[in-house]
Amino acid sequence: MRPLFTLLLLLQAFSVSAVQAKEQLLEVVVAEPYLEMHSGPGRGFPVVYVVGRDEVVTVLYSRTDWFKVRAPHGQEGWARRSELALTKLASGEPAPIPPYPDFATHRWEIGAGYGVFNHQNLVTGWGDFGLTDSLDIEFVVQQALGNIDNRYIASLGMRHTFIPEWRWFSPTAGIGTGYQYIDDKVPPKPLQTHNQLAYVSVGARGFITRRFMWRADWRKYLIFTNQNQNEDPEEWKFGLAVFF
Amino acid sequence: MEIRLSSVLLAAVLLSGCGWFHRGEKAPAQVVAEEPQAEPSIIEPQVNRREVKTPKIKAKDFELGGYFGALSIQDFGTNPIYGVRAAYHVSEDIFLEGYLARSKAGTTSLEDVFPEITVVSDSGRRFTYYDLDLGYNVLPGEIFLGRGRAFNSALYVTVGLGDVKFADKDQFALNFGMGERLLITDWLAMHLDVRDHVFETDLTGRTKNVHNLEATLGLTVFY
To answer: Quick one: fold of A23-99?
Structure first.
């Protein structure tokens, strides 16, 4: 019962903040012969209202490629990004409809994927910040699930993208350091459960659509142990990411 | 007259200010000769430059909420499950979603017949998972309630991977699902989901893939 109550409380908080936020909304003037308003944010939803040239519409918010707009007489509907981008401000300037970030020069990236670490299934998630177009800082958290143990690996590294302006395929290479924790499933317990590690990686990335991209990576680790020999497992992974 | 006086005063202040910054240096040999007074301009614009700020459009691409339902754990009966979900809508077709949920397994038939046998310890009956999914809106549309009301909706499919912790062990799990999103308002959505969590286990003696089906009802908020 308690989680349900918490959920309700959370919803309440959301709805209160939605009512209280009385921010200034963008108003644009239709410059084309008309602007179509659909009943939903998708290509198949029917057109329910049409705003004529020189009429003012209020832009409420956006969802993916669609913008919820309000016509002068209060009718609400969804306008397509490409059509809303043709409207103007009252001053005559083009409406500030933000375009999607350029893939070659994007700064932030967040993604997740599947991989294999030393014959174990791997779940991976990462965040990435671009210092320049070709040099990134990557932070990766992953969990390798095996029959004998589970490993949790967190790593921080630098990655170089060789030709960032190649949209569909661009090779990458990186180095970094990190930490692993071993959670054993079957005895005996590993001699060391916490290790520091370093890695080198080669990979590739590419654009899919809008904010969406893929990334593939091969890594060679060096896991530092207090025994005579260090471990050097390999890993490959593939994932999907969203960039901002 | 007043303007001239104040400009002279201002010049004096500025000069002294410069002197303050150069106080560590040797003073120049000669002070610059006084410049001839410029003609005061006839029109002094007194209008402050107006900052025009165009309001930003808020993007509501995130979805956050919870769900509740029934999970059928293979060999361990059907039990209530509750969880939280968060999604990011990349385009009108594609979304990325994460789930976090927990349930508790019942007893196997073997344990029911022979109460002295325990397959899994009490703490091991806790069933928790996390999933990272890719979703696709296959059939977007509208649902009509009577003559006057229409709700936007979408039938979607999801596929993903994650971790199921059951019997005190973490297992790699794949999940396949299908759901219906019904938008009660543009920011509040109701979900009906069916998902299968598949993983490999040797709990009952031999290694096999187990299917754990769940049917849930959820509520999410777009923001």
So the answer is: SH3 type barrels. (2.30.30)
